[in-house]
Amino acid sequence: MFVAAIAGTLALAACSPPQNAESEAAKAEASAPVAEAATPAAKPIDALTGLKIVGYGPTTAKASTASDARVDVWATADRSLEGYQASLWLNGQQLENAAVSGVTATGTLPASLLATPGTYPLEIRIGENGELLTSEKVDFVIE
């Protein structure tokens, strides 16, 4: 039985097409690690030095203790924010749902920021945690 198994294996090997250099090269290429796509170069942060908010809205919001209270806010910068990790911050807290389009940054005030009336600084910050650059501040009023 063992002899029959070996004979069958040899017969199958004899029927297989011969390996050539081209098919070997294709196999080697297919198994080679794929190079990662080039990461675009980061934009220089110096280009945003002196960043200013030139418009924003709303400028006020009603204070609320409701746990589901939310207010969407936008701010327009004096230059493009495209390509930067920009987000809005109010009173030192990053707003939820950050988005950037051209010169405009948007975010949502969570209920925790709407609980206490007062005047708070609104700013655009650059960087994952807002650590790279901060715009000039504008006043946002919670009534």
Mean pLDDT: 84
**What is the helical fraction, as a range of percent?**
10-25%
The arrangement of helices and strands along the chain is HHEEEEEEEHEEE
> How many β-strands, per DSSP?
10
Q: Which geometry do the CA atoms define?
A: globular
CATH topology of the largest domain: Immunoglobulin-like
**Name of the level-1 CATH class of the largest domain:** Mainly Beta
CATH superfamily of the largest domain: Immunoglobulins
- Tally of helical segments: 3
Q: What fraction of residues sit in β-strands?
A: 25-35%
Amino- and carboxy-terminal Cα gap: 92 Å
Structural class: alpha+beta
CA-atom Rg in angstroms: 30 Å
Low-confidence stretches: none
Describe the structure.
There is one protein chain. With 143 residues, this protein is of the alpha+beta class. It starts with a helix and ends with a strand. It is globular and about 75 Å long. 20% of the residues lie in helices and 34% in strands. The chain has two domains: 2-31, no CATH class; 51-142, Immunoglobulin-like (Sandwich), CATH 2.60.40. It has three helices and ten strands; from the N terminus they run ααβββββββαβββ. The protein has helices at residues 2-15, 21-31, 111-114; strands at residues 53-57, 60-61, 71-77, 86-90, 93-94, 96-101, 104-109, 118-126, 133-134, 138-142. The strands form two sheets. Strands 2, 4, 5, 8, 9 and 10 form a six-stranded mixed β-sheet that branches. The protein has a four-stranded antiparallel β-sheet with strand order 1-3-7-6. 20% of the residues are buried. The model has no long low-confidence stretch (mean pLDDT 84).
